[in-house]
């Protein structure tokens, strides 16, 4: 693939160079069609040429030297771009170099720390910013700056799958957890669901467990009568739960694995191992007119089996991404989720995502257009205990709908 990386910034902590290289390769591979659709190069040129890009990863000292030599500014910046001239591009052969991008990984790391984002995510932004400069954008005045931000947004969408306006459904299980702690009637998850909807959420999620540790049968019955958006009932594929679902008729059922001793659902449903059971459950729910989602790990064979048993949707388990102990491991899990949701969408499945997502880690996934819906509970309810339920929901909505950090 046509990306050439020179690395002078060895040893920078929390930087996954391989993941960065994969991002650059993916962006360059998709660029010709993007250029063709944007009418920025002729169709024949965009399709017949394979763009190449040279990237130098350096330190503050290295980028300061380049700034001093070429721009008379002997101080470090985060990124510098050198574009080929338009005449050079038009005269190029089958392979052509778009230009050179220089990134100070040292400065990027400082900026990432200040913003509270993973270093690789900041590096992705700088890569896109540098490429936008190479494609002719600048930010010398306000109008140009707006146009450049629009170009950067399109390039980011190109890398991560496109524009996204995912729905946000709130799980109110832990309102019931608080109620059950005292064995009384308050707080009522039915009342909480109404407040969540008033705050703008797109749906309500509850998990009716076999041991009834939080949500009760009464809650599900009342929610079915009062929820104005849509009700997603999470449950195990047992005879008892299937009977309840067929009677209640929620808007969607999500089949999940369940073990009594777990605090929360610890992993995705193994559709492969339980294929026949899941297929029968899906068929029975379909007969009752209920769409079915399967909560699964981001694995190719699980997704293909989910499609094979006629599920309508998969909810990708994001726990390993949310719990990743380092930015590099989170990058790896993000890549795994990205490939999984893309495959699920290609097989015709609607795509949901959830588990462990919070106000710090959801923004990156919110940029992935293949995800149609997020299911988030604990983080929102925990924040609501401090700032109120309406505010907690609205803050999460702002992240999911627009990717704007708090």
Textual characterization of the structure:
The chain has 406 residues and is of the alpha/beta class. The longest helix has 21 residues, at 17-37. The strands form 2 sheets. The chain has an 8-stranded parallel beta barrel with strand order 5-6-7-8-9-10-11-12, surrounded by 8 helices. 50% of the residues lie in helices and 17% in strands. Residues 39-47 have low confidence and may be disordered. The protein folds into 2 domains: 3-160, 3-Layer(aba) Sandwich (Collagenase (Catalytic Domain)), CATH 3.40.390.30; 167-402, TIM Barrel, CATH 3.20.20. Helix 6 (119-134) crosses helix 7 (142-160) and helix 13 packs parallel to helix 15. It starts with a strand and ends with a helix. The chain has 18 helices and 12 strands.
Reported for the largest beta sheet, the result is: 8 strands, parallel, barrel
- Whole-angstrom Rg: 24 Å
* Count of runs of 4 or more consecutive helical residues: 18
Helix content: 40-55%
Mean pLDDT: 85
- Which shape, going by the Cα principal axes? elongated
CATH second-level architecture of the largest domain: Alpha-Beta Barrel
Helical/strand content category: alpha/beta
Which CATH C-level class of the largest domain is it? Alpha Beta
Ranges where pLDDT stays below 50 over 5 or more residues in a row are 39-47
For the termini, the CA-CA separation is: 37 Å
**Binned strand content:** 15-25%
Please indicate the count of domains. 2
| CATH fold topology of the largest domain | TIM Barrel
One letter per element, helices H and strands E, the order comes to: EHHEHEHEHHHEHHEHEHEHEHEHHEHEHH
Question: What is the topology, as strand order, of the major beta sheet?
Answer: 5-6-7-8-9-10-11-12
């Amino acid at each position: 693939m046509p990306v050439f990386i020179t690395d002078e910034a060895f040893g920078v902590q929390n930087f996954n160079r391989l993941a960065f290289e994969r991002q650059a390769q993916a962006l360059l591979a998709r660029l010709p069609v993007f250029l063709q659709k944007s009418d920025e190069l002729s169709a024949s040129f965009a399709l017949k040429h394979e763009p190449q890009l040279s990237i130098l990863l350096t330190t503050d000292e290295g980028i300061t030297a380049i700034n001093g030599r070429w721009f008379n500014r002997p101080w470090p910046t985060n990124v510098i771009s050198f574009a080929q001239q338009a005449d050079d591009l038009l005269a190029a052969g089958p392979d052509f170099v778009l230009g050179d991008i220089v990134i100070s990984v040292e400065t990027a790391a400082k900026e990432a720390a200040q913003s509270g984002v993973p270093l690789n995510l900041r590096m992705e932004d700088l890569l896109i910013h540098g490429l936008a400069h190479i494609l002719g954008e600048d930010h010398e005045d306000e109008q140009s700056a707006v146009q450049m931000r629009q170009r950067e947004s399109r390039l980011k969408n190109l890398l991560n799958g496109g524009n996204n306006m995912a729905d946000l459904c709130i799980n109110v299980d832990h309102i019931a957890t608080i109620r059950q702690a005292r064995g009384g009637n308050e707080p009522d998850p039915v009342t909480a669901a109404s407040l969540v909807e008033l705050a703008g959420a797109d749906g309500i999620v509850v998990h009716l467990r076999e041991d009834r540790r939080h949500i009760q049968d009464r809650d599900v019955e009342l929610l079915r009568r009062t929820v104005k958006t849509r009700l997603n009932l999470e449950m195990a594929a047992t005879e008892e739960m299937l009977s309840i679902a067929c009677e209640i008729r929620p808007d969607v059922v999500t089949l999940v694995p369940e073990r009594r001793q777990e605090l929360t659902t610890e992993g995705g449903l193994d559709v492969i191992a339980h294929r026949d059971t899941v297929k029968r459950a899906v068929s029975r729910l379909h007969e009752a007119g209920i769409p079915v989602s399967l909560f699964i790990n981001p694995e190719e064979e699980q997704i293909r089996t989910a499609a094979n048993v006629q599920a309508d949707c998969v909810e990708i388990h994001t726990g390993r991404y949310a719990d990743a102990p380092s930015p590099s491991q989170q990058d790896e899990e993000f890549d795994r989720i990205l490939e999984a949701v893309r495959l699920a969408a290609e097989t015709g499945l609607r795509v949901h995502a959830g588990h462990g997502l919070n106000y710090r880690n959801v923004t990156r996934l919110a940029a992935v257009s293949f995800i149609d819906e997020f299911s988030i509970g604990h983080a929102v309810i925990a924040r609501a205990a401090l700032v109120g339920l309406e505010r907690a929901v609205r803050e999460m909505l702002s992240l999911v709908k627009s990717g704007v950090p708090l």
